[in-house]
Amino acid sequence: MELRTPEVLAWGLFAAALLAAAVLWRELRGRGATRRPVANSATLTRLPAFRAALRAHRARTAALAGAAALLAGASLLGAARPVDTTVERPQSRSRDIMLCLDVSGSMASYDAELVRTFRRLVADFEGERIGMVIFNGSAATVFPLTDDYDYINEELDGAEQALTGGSVQDAFFAGTFNGWGTSLIGDGLATCVTSFDRADTQRARSVVFATDNEVAGRPLVPLTDAGQLARAKAVRVYGLSPAPDGASRESVEMRDVVEGTGGRFYSMTDRGAIGGIVESVQAQEATVIESASRALRTDSPALPIAAASLAFVGLVVASRRWRS
């Protein structure tokens, strides 16, 4: 245990020593003047009752003195603020996960459910950094990669409100209508792949890509090229589609692209989709990143408070016994 302000204890002990010296000097100085001889007192002092009373008096005096000293010492110790110091070395997982959501008209009936799916995904992660990008004719970042899960859940709540017709709808979709058409799937995936802010390849990077893959415009980057970009950057793409696997040409193309990155294709109708994505992401090896060591100092007043309480009880008990 350390003291945050040890000088308080030092000055308190110095003051107590001065007080004790003053009391002792006054006692010695006045001892001769206050004593008076009493004849035939030896008979009284030999009585058993007198000796018992003298012993009780001395015991109560000692109890009062001890309790007062303990109370004063505990008060000084508390004023010096005892603290406990622990050294910790924070660690974080080197996994980055980008949630990539198609907000085009063909996905309107699925988007709110997809955001709820994203929230359930986030609830199963711990320590990973998570970001979110939405796209239609162009892509826009909802929130960048972060491990602040309270902030992430707030943003997902806002996204769900916007996707169900809430008042923040216009602000949420801002920046997604700047392309040549709508549902530019390849542009959206390429933006998500390039949204990772760290270039080192030791970090496990994943994209959860939710779309029906129904293109309605002229993308700058075809979906197959976006898949090649993901492979080049060692990003695994996990596809989440409202259509069952193989139910349409679009779902087949999407499955081929995501599996080409080392990821997997999931249908929203698959009850095991969320668990499968979480297990697949967590199965990727992640290097533990250790931050600089830091010392944490927390006040630890339990000992002086307990000692002061005990001393106070002793003072009360001894004082009452004295009066009796």
From TrEMBL:
The chain crosses the membrane at residues 6-25. InterPro entries: VWF_A, vWFA_dom_sf. The keyword Transmembrane helix applies. Keywords: Membrane, Transmembrane, Transmembrane helix. Residues 96-281 form the VWFA domain. It comes from the Bacteria. This is von Willebrand factor A.
